[in-house]
Amino acid sequence: MKKLTVSKAMRNAGLLLGLLSSVAAVTGASAADAVRDKWCGNVHIRFFVGGAEGDAFGTIVYNGARQAANDTGAQVEYVFSGWSQEQMTQQLREAVAAKPDGIAMMGHPGDAAILPLAEDAAAAGIKMIYQNVPVPTAQAKFGSAYVGAQQEPQGRALGEEILRRFGLKAGDVAIVLGGFDDSNRGAREEGTAKALEKGGVKVVRLTSPPEWATDPNLAIPVITATVQANPAAKAIVYPGGQQLGNAATYMQAAGKKAGELINVGFDTSPQIVEAFKDGWVQLTADQQPFQQGYMPILSLCEQIVYGLSPVSVDTGNGFVTPDNYRNVADLASQGLR
Fold first, then answer.
1. pLDDT, position 149
2. Which of 136, 171, 191, 319 could form a disulfide with 152 if both were Cys (CB 3.0 to 4.6 A apart)?
3. 5 Cβ neighbours under 8 A, 6+ residues apart
4. 151-285, superfamily in CATH?
5. Hey, is 62 helix, strand or coil?
6. Cα–Cα distance measured from residue 275 to residue 78, given in angstroms and rounded to the nearest whole number
7. Is it the case that residue 10 has pLDDT exceeding 50?
8. Where in this chain does the record put each Periplasmic binding protein domain (predicted)?
9. 131 phi and psi, to 5 degrees?
10. Contact 101/124 with Cβ under 8 angstroms?
11. CATH class of 44-149+288-317
C-alpha cells in the first residue's frame, strides 16, 4: 500500500476543512434566508371579527387577529358585523368583490348563505378559512379549514359537566338559551340541552337572538320572566360570554341571590371573571377566542406565501370553574382570554 506523506495528508485535510466550511457557509446562508420578518407583508386579508367593536368575545378574537397581523406582517382589514348573519353575508359579498388574497370568515350565516360566495371566491383565487362556527359543506367542497370549538361536541360536554359537577337529577329543571331557530349556530346549545335531557333534566329552551350578544341588557325582561315562570329551575345556561358576563344583572332583576341559581355558559371575559369572584357564575366552557383570531391569519399566510395546507384547530379547551378562574383572570383583563 502506498504511504501518504505528512505534507500530502495535511493538504488533503485542508481541502476537507475548506469543503466543510463552504457547506456550513451555504447552509448558514440558507437558514438565515429562510427566517424572515414580516414574511406575509404583501398579502391582503379581510378578517371577520363577528361582533361590534368593543364586544366582549369579539374583542379577544380581534386582539388575536391583530397579534397575528403584527407577527406576520399581513395587511388585514377588519370587518365588524354585530353578530348579524344578514350583515355578515352582505359584507362577505363585498369582500369577495374586493378580491383580497384571503378571507377569514365567521361561519354564522351557514352553508346555504356562504356556499355561493365561497364558490365565487374560489373562482377568483381567494383563499378562505372559517372561524367560530363551522360550515362543513363549504369546507369540504373547497378544502377550507376551520378554527374554533366543535359546536355540538362542546355543548354536549358542557351539559355532561353540569350533570356531573352540580348533581342535577331526573325531574330537575334547567333553562338553556340558544339560537334554536338556527340549526347551524344553535348546535352547541342544543348539544347542551340534549345532554341534560339524557340525564333526566327537564329543559326549558329559550331562543336567544343575535341582538342579545350585541347588547345583553336587551335580554333582561325575557330572562327575568322565564326565571320567575320556572321557580324550580336549578340552572341557566347562556349561549355566549356577553350574556354570561351579565349574569349578575339577570339574577338581581329576577330577585335571585348569588349562587341561588347555577349560572353556566361559554367563554371568558373580564365580566365573567368578576362574576366568578362574586359568586354569580359557576362554570364556563372555554373556546379560546384569541386562537380564533390568530390562527386563521397565520394559516392563510402559510397557504398564500408558502403553499402549505390549510390548518384546522379545535379551540375547545375544557372548563373554567371557581377553582381555576384566577389562572386566566389577568389575561382576561387584558382582552386575551
1. 95
2. 191
3. none
4. Response regulator (3.40.50.2300)
5. helix
6. 30
7. no
8. 49-302
9. -135, 155
10. no
11. alpha beta
